Please model this.
Amino acid sequence: MTRYDADYIPCSAMAIYAHPDDIEFTVSGTVAKWAGAGCDITAVLVTSGDSGTHEYKKYTRKSLARIREQESKAAAKILGISRIIFLRKHDCEIEDTLALRKLLVRQIRKFRPEVVLCGDPQSLFFGNRYVNHPDHIVAAKAALGAVFPASEMELLWPELGKAHKVSAIYISSTMHPDTWIDITGTIERKIESLRAHRSQLGDRNIAPMIYAWAAGEGETPFPKRKKRGRAAKYTEPFRVMRLLKDEPTNENRQR
Ligand SMILES: [Zn+2]
Model:
């Protein structure tokens, strides 16, 4: 198994996303697959989604955040995520600041993941129906800036923990995918984890949409996978940045 090809399972991973359901929508098939194979997974959520509703009479920002954190925890259990870190910034208000980068560096240096998953800050338009949420762009940019170079620079912010080099970044929601991870075995858990987000999806049956996305059919806003060789039925697409090509050292494998 070559490092960071579509079948590779890292020993540890950290998924850094803006909102409580972002992981479930974009990378949960991969996360469940890796966790099932023994990968230790940490989720870092920059906000708790406290503006994420149009049912504004039903919630306050505080009550919605509380509910959405519970939904995230339930989804994490379904996916096999080991822990969730809530940074509790306000939904729709995050900015790519040094303060946010520092919060992420602290988590990266603490849990020392082999790979980081995050979004693509270059993704602004998905087809002609969806403008990417500004929080998705900020969280993705902050995650990339925290991974490289901040986390690995020994002289930078030593009070945030011992420097750590992340070996690869798996970038989701990208217009430039180069790796399609087979999630045929975990797509049902992906759907189940999305169902945990009842404040967002209610009783809506999202299974047909998720199956169509993962099959690269229908209205997918992302470039379609070229069918060649043994094509998996359901996949999640990534652009994989291979920052460290060599085999991991024991140091890299330690958390
Ligand atoms: Zn989101």
